[in-house]
Write a structure and sequence with these properties.
Elements (H helix, E strand, L loop, with lengths): L1 E8 L5 H9 L3 E5 L6 E9 L2 E7 L11 H12 L4 E7 L3 H14 L3 E6 L1 H6 L2 E3 L1 H8 L3 E3 L8 H13 L13 H16 L9 H9 L3 H10 L1 H22 L3 H17 L4 E3 L8 H9 L4 H42 L4 H18 L2 H17 L1 H15 L6 H10 L5 H7 L6 H10 L9 H11 L4 H25 L21 H20 L1 H14 L5 H19 L4 H25 L1 H13 L6 H10 L5 H12 L10 H7 L5 H13 L4 H11 L2 H28 L3
Parallel strand pairs: 1-4, 1-5, 5-6, 6-8
Antiparallel strand pairs: 2-3, 3-4, 7-9
Amino acid sequence: MKITIALAGNPNAGKTTLFNELTGARQHVGNYPGVTVEKKEGIYLHDGYQLRIVDLPGTYSLTAYSVEEVVARDFLVNEKPEIIVNIVDASNLERNLYLSLQFLERGIPVCIALNMIDVAKSRGIEIKSEKLSELLGVPVVPIIARIGYGKHDLMKTAARVAEEKIRQKPLQISYGDDLDRVLQEMEKEIISGNFLTDTYPARWIALKYLENDELILSKGSTANPELSEKLTGMMRSVTAHLEDTMDTYPEAMLADYRYGYIHSIVRKGVIRRKDDENRLYTSDKIDRIVTHRFLGPLIMLAVLAGLYQFTFTYSEVPVGWFEAFFSWLSDTVSTAMDNGFLKSLIVSGIIDGVGGVLGFVPLIMFMFFGIALLEDSGYFARVAFMMDRIFRIFGLHGSSAMAYILSGGIAGGCAVPGVMATRTLKSTRERMATLLTVPFMNCGAKLPLLALLTGTFFGKNKALLMLILTLVSWAGALLVAKFLRLTIIRGSATPFVMELPPYRFPTFKGLAIHTWERTWQYIQKAGTVILGISVIIWAMMTFPGLPEKEAQKFEQQRESLQTSLAHANSPSEAEHIKELLQDIDSEAAKARLRNSLAGRIGTFMESITRFAGFDWRINIALLGGFAAKEVLVSALGTAYSLGETEAESGKSLSETLAKSPNWSPLLALSLIIFTMFYAPCFVAVVCIIREAGSWKWGLFSMVFNTLLAFGLAVLVFQIGSVMGY
């Protein structure tokens, strides 16, 4: 029997941990149609049931304040799952039951998963699940999602409720005389007018009008403008009455009464506390140190340094294996195939291009594992909390820190989810300043180039340099945000409030799933987007080739030297002629590349970019980076591969750059700075346009960021040159 089960709950309640524990490898990740909120689905097989598990976005409420809440509510309405499994944090029961009440008011079949009962027990809290089930009228199953305890009982209970098609009567809570009276009047109007009742219960529609829910109001005005306006008028009337008599408004009253209802349930013997209710819990004790005004930032820097040290130290050997494999593959294919465009495409366009990106898969995997460890333990929430003190100085909101982190503020993220995360910011000005500066973070797409250059030219101090580069990206983003907030996006900052989840020991299974998901997305991008762009760049670097006269000149020089080689008088003379032949071949390869379409564009730009130390080959790679930052490494690999002779091929890109006379630590640092700050990739620009609501902001981001990046790169290169580096 196939049953659809929706997992719902507050953020940090253990919802995704339970989803991973239930579905394991039988899950896939995508996006909800029309939005970029992550959609996870998986299959759970048990006792003849095939349960389709859908992990809804974490939400505190069914009132549409954020895109996550809209997505969760729309799924429940449109997909109509047979049952909702509502994950509730047992150690914070009263707050978590607020969402449960809204499900019950909506009349949706619910099974409550009472999660983290071990944490509650450690805090001296004992919860009687049978009593809670009796009072709420829904099944309540104690679980520990982290270790899988109770998951089979939970799924069995949920499947039984779904199979028996037990339909719950919508819960009705008394909200006081004023609101109850207007709710009854609204219900009568809604039922008599058959107003949206095909989709929602009448009382629930009335509640949404009192909460001034924009989506429901929009649907109502479309379905029946006259009746919608009448309901809105009733809402305005009771709002004015409450403001005059009680200095409050309907939405606050509804929340107060819901929490009052929850409190009355809890007091009926549901919770028994063994210890002092006001004692400090373990997480609170840790936070006294970890979020300390002075110690906190130092600990954060130490954690970041440890993350980079861990990543570079343990990924060095497998990265070497990958580089050796692709060098061997390039040599093997090069030896087996005859010279021609097909060989050039496969060796230079595909193997050297895409292989240069895939060679960093172990490094990316170790980085994502470290990040997953920090996320799942609850430490990232502390980072956002601490960063709020700094963010307010620069006119931003503490929640902007999460957007920065998602974009790669701790390295390895992506600007796209970072841009999307700005939706949670209520202030338009803070949201705009954040989404325009999140691309400055060192995302996973920039990481291969940063790792390549730091490893090649700053090998002994690469972990320290990566930490410094992370701090530079944050400082640059904040300074630009301050500039924007003082000029084109003026306005005051809004207060910051967030929930700090308790610290938890991440499960290896959860870490493995999170690490593999992100690494696989990186590999998929290398096999699709980067492969396509690499082939296009190869074609641009190959055609139209050398003019006939110039090609003949190189051929004549080669033939002359080969004749001299045949008549050489001594081994030393023959060796010297062979070296001259290699020089001719190298010059011919470089001439062909420089005369290609990409070479001509890169050479044209060189008159300006030389101030930052960039030659025409680097310019070619940077042009590819406008499409996707991962292409930077593959484009460099292709550019240097096409410019090599047969004798020079087979070396890794790192070896090639290290031995190139044009490269130096100063040039590497200049390129790193430019890469960190120049225009976002194409997909990120599209997201900025969509979120900002205007193509002008996308264009502004491309132009402003590139000019800023070039100015900084020129500054670094010129100062370094004057100082003799």
